[in-house]
Amino acid sequence: MRPQLSSLTLLMLAAVAACGDPAPAPAPSSDTGDVSDHPDAPAQTDADADAEGCGDCAGELPDAPDVADLPDVDGCGNGTPEDGEECDDGNDDDGDACLSDCTAARCGDGVVQEGVEECDDGNRSYEDGCLRDCKLATCGDGWVNAGVETCDRRVAPETTCADIGFPAGEPVCTESCEVSYVTCSRHLDSVRYGGALLDDFSQQLIEIRLTAAGGHVVAGRFQGMFLLGDVELRSRDARSVAVARLSRAGQVLWAHAIADGRRPFNAEQVFGGIAVGPDDTTVVVGAAEDWVRVAAGRDEREVRDETDVFVAKYGEDGAVLWDRLFGGFGRQRAESVTIGADGTIYLAGRYTGVLDFGETRLSTPDVFDVYVAALDPDGNALWGRAFPGTYQPKLVATPQGVVLVGYYEDAVDLGDGNPLEAPRWQQTFVAGLARDGGATVWRTVIAEEGNTSPNSVEVFPDGDVLVGGSFTGANRERGMFFARLRGERVSWQRVFRGDGQRVVSMAAAVPDLLGGFAAVGHFDGNLDLEEAGLAGIGSVDVFVAGFDAAGTPRWATAYGNLLDQYASDAVVDGDGNLRIVGTFEGAVDFGGGTFHSNGRLDSYILQLHGGAGDSGEERR
Q1: What pLDDT shows up at residue 73?
Q2: DSSP string of 333-368?
Q3: Which one of 51, 190, 342, 378 is most buried, by most CB atoms within 10 A?
Q4: In angstroms, what CA-CA distances link 391 with 138, 351, 372, 522, 581?
Q5: How far apart are CA 186 and CA 502, in angstroms?
C-alpha cells in the first residue's frame, strides 16, 4: 500500500512555497544609476516589499524536503501500527503474520500463514481436508475426513454390523481409516449331524438343494449309524446313501437310506447327486452294487453286473414315487443330475461296457466314457449320448436344454463337427446340449496355462453360465479357477492360487443375489484372494468367499482347527444367505459354539449371512 501525505505535511510545503523567493539583488553601480533615485520612479511602500516576497522572511530558506524522506507517512503500510490497526509490517505479503490490510493473520481467515499453518480453507469444519486448527487432515487425527475416510482409528465407526444386516459383531477402523466389517459375524445357524459317540465310521453330507417351501434337501454317504435330528438311518458295514428333507427352521421332515438290504459286507451304494424339481420333488442318483432298495420297506432291485445307475424320485412328503436301475455289462454310475423347468431329468456319469436306457443303448470299449441322458418326469428314458475321451461331468439345466462341463486331455469330438485338438494341458470344456435329442448346439474351452478340472456349473439369473473348479500350474502349484460364459463366449476367467503344492479344492460356486457369486471349498496353508486372502488355521480348513460380477473377491472367511474340515456344496436362499454342507474332524466353531465329531468325520449344515461385506479375512 502506498504511503499518504498528512495534512500537516501539506501545510508545511505550502509555507515553503510562499517564503521561498530569493533575496533582493544588490543596488546597481553609480555608472548605471539607482532606479529608485530616478525622478520618475514611484516611491516603494511596505506592501510592495511584501508582494516581492521579502516581507517576513529573514535570512535564506532551506531547500524543500524530498517527499520520500518524510517520516510522518499516515495509514496502513507505513510500518507503524496506528489506531484501528491490529498490526502494520509495511509490506503487502499475505503469507506472514500481518496481512496487507493490517489485520493479524489467524486460522480461519482463508490465507495460509507459511511456517505456522499447514492449510487454511476459511471454515471451522473438522470433516474436510483442512481441520479447524489449520492442520491437514490425516488418518488417525481423531476426525473423519468426509469423502476421503469412512472412519478414523481414534473414533469408533458410526455404522454397526447390524446396520448392514450382519447378525452380530462390531466393525473396526483399519490402519487406512476405512470401515472393515471382517469382525462382523456371518454366522446365522449351524447344526451338527453324525454318528453315535465313538462311532468309527464317517457320515458325510455332500450336496444341498433348496426346496420351494424355503427349506432344503441334503444327501451324501455314510456307514454305520447316521443321526439326522430325531431320524436315525442305519446301514451295514458297506457305504450307503442318505437323503433328507429339512424345513426352513431346520427340522428334519423325512430321511431315507439307499442301502443294500441283503449282503452284510462289501456291497456299496455310491452317491452321485441330488436335484429338486419344479414340483418340489427330489431326485437322487448314484451307483448301485449287488442289491439296492431306496427306502425302508421298499422292494429291492438287483444289479445286472458290477454296478448299475440308480435313479430314485421322492415326493414332497418323502414317499418314493419311483426308482429305476440302468445298466448292462460292466460298471455304470451317475455323478450329476439336474431338472429342467418342464420336469425333464438330466443325468450324467461314466460307464464301461454297455449302458442300456431301453430304446437308447450306449456301448464303449474304453474305460469309463462320459454319458448324458434325459428322462421324463416318470423316469422313462428320452435320449442318451456318449462323450468319449472326456472326464468329470457336471450338468445344469437351462431353458434351451442342459449345459455339460468336463475336462479332456487328448483330441476329442463333442459332436458339433468341429473336434477339439489335443491340448498342452488338461483343459475344461463347456457344451450346450439341446433339450430334444441332446445335440451339441455350441461348445467352448476354458484355456489356462495349467491343468483344470471343473467341480461346479450353475446359471446366473441373466442366463450366463458360471463354471468353477480346481487348477494345477506348471510348477504343480495348486489353486482354483472361475469363468463366466455367455453361450460359447467366455466373458472372463480368473485363477486364484494357494500355497505352492498344498491342497486347494473349490467344491461349489453359486450365483448370489448381488450379481456376483459365492464359492466354498477347502485349503491348506494360504489362499491368495487378493485383499481378501486367507491364512490357514490348522491342517485342511474350510473357506467361504464372495466375489463380484467380474470375479473380484469381496470377502473371505475360514473355519478350522488342527484336524481336517471340508466344505462340499452350497446354495443361496431367497434371503441372499448361504447354506453350506460339509464334514469335519475333531472340533470346529462356526460362530455358534464348538462342535465335536463323534467318530471319524461328522457333517454340518452352516448358514451364513451373504451380504457383500468387504475385503478382508475372518478366522475361526
Answers
A1: 58
A2: EEEEEEE-TT--EEEEEEEEEEEE-SS-EEEEEEEE
A3: 190
A4: 57, 11, 12, 22, 25
A5: 27
Phi, psi of 69 (to 5 degrees): -90, 0
What's the pLDDT score for residue 132? 79
Q: Hey, which residues does 523 pair with through a beta bridge?
A: 504, 541
Location of C-alpha cell 489449520? 134
Neighbours of 309 (CB within 10 A): 29
Distance CA 369, CA 16 (A): 124
Residue 65: pLDDT band by 50, 70, 90 thresholds?
low
- Closest by alpha carbon to 286, among 258, 267, 262? 258
Are the CB atoms for 185 and 613 separated by under 8 Å? no
Pull the grid cell for residue 305: 453286473
DSSP 78: S
Residue 405 burial by Cβ neighbours in a 10 Å radius (0-12, 13-18, 19+): buried
C-alpha span between 394 and 188 (Å, rounded): 30
Cα Dmax for the chain: 175
User: 358, 350, 351: which is closest to 375 by C-alpha?
Assistant: 358
The pair phi, psi for residue 384, each rounded to 5°, is -150, 145
Spatial separation of the C-alpha atoms in residues 282 and 289, rounded to whole Å: 22
Task: Answer with the residue of higher pLDDT: 311 or 94.
Answer: 311
Locate 35 and state its grid cell: 532606479
Express each pLDDT in 526-563 by its tens digit: 888 887 778 888 789 999 999 999 999 988 989 988 88
Contacts with 529 (C-beta within 8 Å, 6 or more apart), sequence order: 496, 545, 553, 556
Grid cell digits, residue 337: 443330475
Residues 233 and 204 sit within 8 Å (Cβ to Cβ): no
**What's the whole-model pTM score?**
0.77
